[in-house]
Request: fold
Amino acid sequence: MSTKRSHARALHLEPESSNRSGHSVQFYTDGSYLIEEVSRFIGSALGAGDAAVVIATQAHQDELAQRLEARGVDVTLAGKQRRYVTLDAAETLAKLLVNDWPDGRRFAEVVGKAIERAQTTMRGKQRQVAAFGEMVALLWAEGKHEAALRLEQLWNDLARTHSFTLRCGYPMASFSEERHAELIHKVCAEHSHVIPAESYTSQVKEEERLLNIVSMQQKAQVLQREMAERKKAQQALQLQEAELADFLESAVIGMHGVAADGTILWANKAEMELLGYSREEYIGHHISEFHADPPVVEDILQRLGRNEELHGYEARLRHKNGSLRRVRIHSNVFMQEGKFVHTRCFTVDVTEQKDADEARSRLAAIVDSSDDAIASKDLNGIVTSWNASAERIFGYKAEEIIGKPITTVIPPELHQDEPVILSKIRRGERIEHFETVRVRKNGERIQVSLTISPVKDESGRVIGAAKIVRDITENKKIEDALRLNERLASVGRLAATIAHEINNPLEAVTNLLYLAKRDVADSSRVRRHLEMAEHELTRVAHITRQTLGFYRDNASPASVDISQILDDLLFLYGKRLSARGVEIVKQYEGKIEISALAGEIRQVFSNLIANSIDAMPDGGLLMVRASNSHEWNNSNMPGARIIIADTGSGIEPEHKKRLFQPFFTTKKEVGTGLGLWIASGIVEKHGGSIRVRSRTETGRSGTAFSLFLPATPPRMEEETVSILRGYERNILNSERTTVA
Amino acid sequence: MKIIVVDDEPVIADTLVDILNGEGCRALAVSDGASALKWAPMMKPDVVISDVIMPGLNGVETAKAIMQLFPECRIILFSGQAASIDLLEKARAEGYQFEVLAKPVNPGLLLSKLGLPKSAVSS
Reply:
């Protein structure tokens, strides 16, 4: 132990073996402090006539030489006397290493020789050697801690065979990390003495040093706490980072970052799922590989390059399965100190929304081009949409009527229908082909067929109604003409019946007159012939009287005796009924009079009776019943109820629904399929109702028509009457033309 | 001349028989086709005069049955209504051609059709 600082012993750190007693380690913070200490160590050796070996960096060698000169040591002379040997640390270290590992043999050759040379005087005498080495510090600085420790051991091994005192120098900076705490112990363990760095060693007095220890302990305390806090802060930061990363990763919106050159830097799960690629197939690739439209991606990159922000930029991306996804891109650039670092991109898949939009516009186009008016209203009856045909049919522009009540187009007398319609819609019911009257903007009335369906939201709640309105004014005119046509046809059929009823009595009268002339001499016979002729003529008169007016269309309702009409008809059909063996049961409850169009009412009964006769080719029972009554529905309106029932074949249930439709007939040879349609039309016009009950089981079969006709009919539509008039006029004119 | 007159209106059948018998015929009045067919084998008529629209067998059906029994028998149909035209057309389609007269028939015309001398009355 050559150091003269005995107080260094106080810090003696358990030498493991005695041969290391001359191997001390010098820690330092400031290079100049190291040089000062080493110069003291080397200087005292040289001053005492001993030798010194210095293996140091070139810089330290120079500084050391200067410092020794300053202490009055003649370095040059000592060199000449071979008492002062210097070796470059890096060069020497290079010679020792085999595969980066200090080699024992080489160490003995290089370092051992240098020591030996310094030990031997010119005269062959042995002298003391002080050595300073920095090779370990170089290894340490490179992080080769094991190699450094190995080198220390080699020094210790050398000390077994050679006598020298050695000082190693380690900069404190090499031990600045927490994990170095253990390593510094290992380094110290290889040395017999440890010399702390200058903050401690520079204190001379014991009290100062103790104070220093307290101060260092306090500092250590502060540092320890700071470190713990920093550790905690770091953990919190890491957690926060992990959370943030997880947040991005599991966000439902696709996100990715793109470098300035267009390379995808990262992307989250949603983005991968959106496009169906794996991370490897996406990240690291150029963004344009995934865009369907090259000009679009070019534009995006250019805009971002200009540091523009993109909001809802529409693009089409290619899914792995080949399909295209429509997306909206929100993106901006992350700039740092004015430099483009990367972009941040949010990708929202709007494919479904776009498809829905397109489907909606397709539907809108269909609605717009429909010939039928299509409109919608909310549950308060306020118009919410109005298509082009609605504009055409009603004369109101969409902007004029949207927001207004639908009753704008409903005639005032039908306004009470609207709450009924709305309540049906609220219950989710549909109204189909409801025929009614609406008003155009110019006040004109039009016949329409309405179909109203409830409109429901996603949860199935009714939020409004969609109406399809068909202008059937023209259809109605055609239907009316058809009705008239059929009525004229039935006039013809009845005319034939009447002809029979008239021609037969005339035949009898003709014969009787012939006989009266022939038997002119026999006055009693003549008298009998003439009486019979008179009787036959009375019959003709009766028939003509009752059939007169049969077809005269009374423009306005007049008092009609229901039982009288029924009797007339039964008389007229009397022969057909008796010919088939049909028994008649009549039941009239008192005098039954209503206000109606007699001709039309007669036609209704005539059609029903004729149907009954057709249903009973082999006889049966015809029951005709009439009574003063009330409508059975809520109105309780007074009027007449007429029941015409037969024991005929009955109506098949599947036919019942279509019974009142035009051109529906079960009597293919004789029926036109218009009789009941006309009958129901007439009954409706009179504000009445017609119902049918029927059975087809053999032995119990039969049909009963039940009619209700109100005592006073509602206001008749003049229009229908005038159409009929016009039609009749036309026919008369054409007949006249034919005759002429 | 033996004649059967068929009409569901008794007044017509009776008066016609009265007229024909007055001209020296032996005429029989019946009110339906079935009766005519019942009497025909006994009477072997030269002429059958029948209404067309009748309950039961109609005039055309009666006439066809008579023709099968007595192919030589002359058939004259008379009718007062258009519906009979349909029946006659149907018969014509089946190959039957009948003499048809429209009611009311002038008795003088009927007698001349039968080739009977016109009596003074019909002048």
Notes: The interface with chain A takes residues 8-9, 11-12, 15-16, 18-19, 22, 53-56, 78, 80-83, 102-108, 119, 121-122 of chain B (CB under 8 Å). Chain B has one domain: 2-122. Chain B has a mean pLDDT of 86. Residues 43 and 79 of chain B are 24 Å apart (CA to CA).
